[in-house]
Task: structure prediction
Amino acid sequence: MEKYVKDILSARVYDVAIESPVHEAASLSKRLQNRIMLKREDMQPVFSFKLRGAFNRMSQLSEEAAARGVIAASAGNHAQGIALAGASLGIKTIIVMPVTTPAIKINAVRSRGGDVLLHGDTYNDAADYAMKLVQKHGYTFVHAFDDKAVIAGQGTVGVEILRQHSGPLDAVFVPVGGGGLMAGMAAYIKYIRPDIRMIAVEAEDSACLKAAMAAGRRVKLSQVGLFADGVAVNQVGKNTFGILRQCVDEVITVNTDEICAAIKDIFDDTRTVTEPAGALGIAGIKKYVQQHQVNGQTLMAVVTGANVNFDRLRHIAERAELGESREAVLAVTIDERPGSFREFSKILGRRNITEFNYRYGDSQAAQIFVGVEVADGESGRQALLKELSERGLTAHDMTTNEAAKVHIRHMVGGRSHQVANERVIRFEFPERPGALMKFLDLLGGRWNISMFHYRNHGAAYGRVMAGIQVPPSDDKAFLQFLREINYPWQDETQNIAYRMFLGSP
Result:
């Protein structure tokens, strides 16, 4: 560990990086009753910490290695760091990026002098192709996180924190994908201040470090979620894991709604919109405070980046209230008669209705899809459900039902009476031209599409829910179709929201 500390202290980063400030999140501190500090790596020239490691690695290349040119694989932030470092050092840079990479990140890399090659749908596809080009052309490959010089460069964030904040510091919360930032920071901070807890924060759908810690070895996830694209890594690095297993005190995972709520929290205190991965630290702090019931502590989150696409903001805003547990999403059955909506609203009292979806079904009962503001988070939601039950109303909690929140809330419009053998499948499509055509080609007219919903969320993947009429005799063939298409999918045929609002009566 001492070797890493020496490498961190001698790392060359400030040719391109700034010493990012530490700010107190005053509003969040008051709300959580702890002092919440933000290390603002989103204020770097490339709006992320990644340039630290990239420059430190590239500044140490031999003349011969630099002359061959540098290649890297990245979906955005590492790419920008490599391109900026290359421009500063006079090194040719080639960046392989997935074809799903948003145009804003591609253009940012090109504007900093990097040559962009688009290949594959995921980071892993891009990385595999980059290694093929290394074999073919002799380029020097610079890894995004699993490299000792990259780790040392990222570790300078930890050096700055201890220099900038000399007072009490109970815990530091760091987003983790491959682990380069956390490894460098933890190696230094634990060496100098072993009393400070180092908390890793992962998106729950790409929690490769948590899986590795549980197994005692590196684990490769079969698939990862892409919402927090900056940490969408299926396996923690070999070098990084060697440090993390010694220096990380706890791993916390957070979901999409909690990440969106954290983005809003940071905006409220700084008027800055971070990328999903950049808000993981704050999401982790909020869960940590809730789980451990801490009070009066000083907690630091690294805000790692702000490379967010503008068209993602709609989705983030929609989910932030859910992540803060300030909105309950419910499916409620009320009488189909004049005045029943008024009576329902009266039961809600002073709670504000945020969303209301309804279509006439029959003369007996009305199924309504409703969003309601609640106080006191989970306890407030349970109190509302209890009150509705006591008033004789059947209510189903949809607040954590992904199909209901992403698709069905936009589809409430009546049930079909003529759809037999309907299978409801939720897919994740790569957000690129041709993805839908691939789906339709493989479907090949074998089964009828009875329902289809898609809405762009500004992410690297599209979320689709489809109804497909599949006779029982075709079950094996349909399963083979799902394997062949090779898109992540989830069977929602028995989902209560689908059964209530869209399924056959």
